[in-house]
Design goal:
With about 350 residues, the chain is an alpha/beta fold. Helix content is about 40%, strand content about 15%. The chain has 12 helices and 8 strands. It has an 8-stranded mixed beta sheet with strand order 1-2-4-3-5-6-7-8, sandwiched between helices. Helix 5 links the parallel strand 5 and strand 6. Helix 2 packs antiparallel against helix 12 and helix 10 packs across helix 11. The radius of gyration is 18 Å and the shape is globular. The C terminus is likely disordered.
Length: about 350
Amino acid sequence: MPSPESQNVIAMLRAQPIAVSSDPAAMRASFEQMTAILPVAGDAIVEATVANGVPAEWVSTPGADATRAVLYIHGGAWVIGSPTTHRALTAEISRASGSRVLAIDYRLAPEHVYPAALDDCVAAYQSLLDGGIAPGRIAIAGDSAGGSLTGCTLLALKERGIALPGCAVMLSPSTDMAMTGASWRTRTTIDPMLGGAGTETATDGPMQWYLAGTDAKTPTVSPLYGDLRELPPILLHCGTEEVLFDDTSRFDAAARAAGVKTTVRYWNGQVHVFQMFASMLPEGREAIAEIGTFMRAHTGGGGSWGVSEGIARLVEQLRARPVVEGATVAQQRAGFETMAQPAAA
């Protein structure tokens, strides 16, 4: 059963459904306002950089290993989001994984359609290799559309003969832009975050802005349809009530059938990319600990930790820190209410 904190978040989302605008600028402004109240750890170091032509930022916390890296690809339906909107999450991933995180500001639709975002992801990954980081000491991770781009980047790297990373993490990924999974229909009334948008908005809005006529079953927009053989170990997270549930479960099945070592975790009742709300949700903190442990195990930073022991240690570290730093619960509630209405153009 979801924690009381999680139930409160779900109630807020149901009371204030997230509005989807036909104006990308308004959607971006709303998302920036909502995520601005998510507290970033005070000991996080953020350094602006350019990764092979792609604007980005390095995020690190004390003890981060400079010889290991996470390439983080933010979510936002290919249209919104930035390293700034996900900084609270990337800082905690740095802490949990013991790595520096390169969060990229890839080009967004509709101004930049497929394959612009994918090209930026590949270019940024190549910058890590060019910087002397061994591929086996790199993890690629992303949420939602960024989870999709994570899978697409793996396929693009393999296709281009570029050495693959040690592992990948896909959080609530969109793996099938053709939306053939049943959960797009069966869960649209129970998904507290994306359900209100439903298939109509996804078809008419952001997905189509990004595709711009590209076949939705192209593997490098929908990794479910790709040749998944020889991909590195992948960790998948998804909430049980998400419209994207089948995008996760079907991708997991396809990857396993292709011989990929996958670890999948379905989180009971959790909202889409609940890991972003770790300052509010105990489930978010546990999920980040699991992500960190997985990355440590597959990028040379795991030591002798077993998975269970590693999660236990990292959860304890996260619990030792204040749950909310710089934002009150009231401010976070206000953030959800802001997100419910598109900002003025």
